[in-house]
Amino acid sequence: MSSSESNPKSNSEPEKSFSDLSESDGHLREHRTSSEDVYLGKFLHLKKDIVQLPDGNTTYREYLIHPGAVAIMPILNDGRILLERQFRYPVDAAMIEIPAGKLELGEDPLLCAQRELLEETGYSAKSWEFLGRIHPVISYSTEIIDIYLAKDLTLGERALDEGEFLDVFAASLDEMHEWIASGKITDVKTIISVYHLARRLKKL
């Protein structure tokens, strides 16, 4: 069977481009009809909502309420990037990632980034630049992560939170590209931050 026979729409109905779509997303939206708190933890809040679908049917959505977080790309004077190696219990592995941390209630994201960089690495930065915002787990969490570039670093004393254990080291952007390609780095915020930095440096 030819490809045109197996997919009869391939020739007669080519895919639209994004500019062809309606600006309105009302035909895609779901509407909450009820909401239930399933679990209230110290860090995460699990909810179960009943929603009405665009076709009028109903279903449920389970998702996590997250306070939000920041991630930092700290650049040393020699161009290398400060990284951390930290054990992540849910995936049972020590992960290579950039410094990051969750927002305290009402905390400004930039102030959170400055606090987390100092606490986790001992470095402070004179220059800060917003690189972008990501939604790392759109299917089951409200989490957002704001990414910052930190430059002109000065080393001081780090002050890890109680129960926090991590290694701090530095690597070049080229090394990070290699580690992403090989699967040594799989943390999504780190991968996307490398993209943002490389694009900014015109290496992509």
TrEMBL record:
GO molecular function annotations of the record: hydrolase activity
Does the keyword field hold Hydrolase?
A: yes
Task: Extract the PROSITE patterns matched here.
Answer: NUDIX (PS51462), NUDIX_BOX (PS00893)
Q: Identify the residues that the record assigns to the Nudix hydrolase domain, covering every copy.
A: 66-193
What keywords were assigned to this record? Hydrolase
Which PANTHER family does the UniProt entry name for this protein? NUDIX HYDROLASE DOMAIN-CONTAINING PROTEIN (PTHR11839:SF18), UDP/ADP-SUGAR PYROPHOSPHATASE (PTHR11839)
Q: What is this protein called?
A: GDP-mannose pyrophosphatase
